[in-house]
Amino acid sequence: MSATAAATAxxxxxxxxxxxxxxxxxxxxxxxxxxxxxxxxxxxxxxxKKRAAHAAEDAGDEEVVxxxxxxxxxxxxxxxxxxxxxxxxxxxxxxxxxxxxxGLTLEVDNAAFAxxxxxxxxxxRNAILMIxxxxxxxxxxxxxxxxxxxxxxxxxxxxxxxxxxAPRKAAPAPVDGSLTEVPSKKSKAAAPGPHNPVRxxxxxxxxxx
Length: 209
Description:
The chain is α+β, with helices and mostly antiparallel strands. It has helices at 3-10, 15-59, 62-68, 111-119, 121-133, 137-141, 143-156, and strands at 80-83, 87-90, 99-108, 198-208.
């Protein structure tokens, strides 16, 4: 055997282990980068949710806060429904004699409050008739008008029981070019008012002639 051949045989082949080591190192680096990106994305999402919740609380927007913290309804405690007699009232139209025939049912917290409302029913019916008498047929034919009517009924039907509910304020329009406007703490609304035991108003009959 020549000296060159002997030297070649004596030299170990280190090329394969070196390449394998580089591959493992690149894989480890890639996994670490992906993990960092995933953690950063999760952190950003959590921060945005907290920011939205704090913005809603600072603005005093109880409806937004309720949506963010919405809980599933409890089927063991269903609401109580209190149907009222049909209302027939002349409307406030000036160009023609129009009247409305409206049937509605109040959705309240519990049966005890429903019984309490029955003792105040003459005053409650008077409040609803006063609301209807100041509406025009054009207002009540629109969906928005019916929704406004339901909100007013919810507010006025508890007034005879000594519960005063402030009218709901309209949400401010968003600034052009932005998705959300975060109000400043200086414009923070007052503390929320008393709880309204009347949860909703359901119309069972609505005829305008």
